[in-house]
Specification:
245 residues, alpha/beta, six-stranded mixed β-sheet, four-stranded antiparallel β-sheet, 10 helices, 10 strands, globular, binds adenosine-5'-triphosphate
Length: 245
């Protein structure tokens, strides 16, 4: 296995607020890694540091073996990273299809060029049915699918998802998790931030737990899942728990 993403001794700040402390993290090619933790633990900030939106002040971040610690967000995205931020952020006034065409028209150098609109619709047939609808009229679940489909169209080798199940009904959460599994089947490495602890550790190979800006546990996701007390302690901090299968 080769490392797709590594963080070594990363510290990040918002102005003078020291948020991330000495983070070590890695994701290997083709695996799903989940990053867990309570609200405010620093998960989103870690994703922002990876994407260059809140650059690390200390430490080192590598992507596909290259140092990206000081690179700009657009450069990092262009290396083959799809980022689906918290809250989806689809363009409400554009149709489903227009949303999907946004990344295609952007000057992104696709590493493989395998994802097309037709393939995205194959994976998400319900988006095809609604392709002329304004994105804001879609349900939360379909908006999440749209955000994921849009990220796929940049042909990512690494896909970063920030709480994709947030605010979704349990059945829809299962759909989202099924889709994440399918993307792993395509060879895409996935970094999944989730409040839905049980579903996340069922689907992931490895888990990292963050608390107060520090990694407090890391290991095999199955090991985490088997420790019911640990799961309950963390799952109790989230609003709801749904199984992935
Ligand atoms: P959540 O599940 O609520 O999204 P999180 O684990 O993603 O939580 P972050 O959003 O990374 O946590 O927040 C980590 C800490 O940084 C929190 O204490 C938060 O209040 C603080 N924070 C987040 N954004 C900013 C900002 N723009 N300026 C200052 N502090 C911030």
């Amino acid at each position: 296995m080769s490392a797709v993403l590594t963080l070594t001794g990363v510290h990040s700040y918002y102005a003078k607020s020291h948020i991330l402390h000495d983070l070590d993290f890695s994701a290997e090619a083709g695996e799903i890694v989940t990053l867990l933790g309570r609200n405010g633990a620093g998960k989103t900030t870690m994703l922002r540091s990876i994407m260059g939106l809140t650059p690390a002040r200390e430490g080192r971040i590598t992507l596909f073996g290259q140092d990206i610690t000081r690179r700009a967000p657009f450069q990092i995205a262009a290396m083959g990273v799809g980022y689906v931020p918290e809250g989806r952020r689809v363009f409400g006034n554009l149709t489903v299809e227009e949303n999907l065409l946004v990344p295609v028209s952007a000057p992104v150098s696709a590493p493989s060029g395998r994802w097309t609109l037709a393939r995205a619709y194959e994976l998400f047939p319900r988006l095809q049915q609604r392709r002329q609808s304004k994105a804001r009229t879609l349900s939360g679940g379909k908006q999440e699918m749209l955000a994921i489909a849009r990220a796929l169209l940049v042909n990512p080798r690494l896909l970063i998802l920030d709480e994709p199940s947030q605010g979704l009904a349990p059945l829809i959460v299962r759909d989202v998790f099924r889709t994440i599994r399918e993307m792993r089947g395509e060879g895409i490495t996935i970094l999944l931030v989730e409040q839905n602890v049980r579903a996340a550790v069922e689907i992931a190979e490895r888990a990292f737990v963050m608390d107060d800006g520090r990694i407090v546990w890391s290991g095999r996701a199955s090991e985490f899942a088997a420790d019911e007390e640990r799961v309950r302690a963390l799952a109790g901090a989230s609003t709801k728990a749904v199984h992935a299968a």
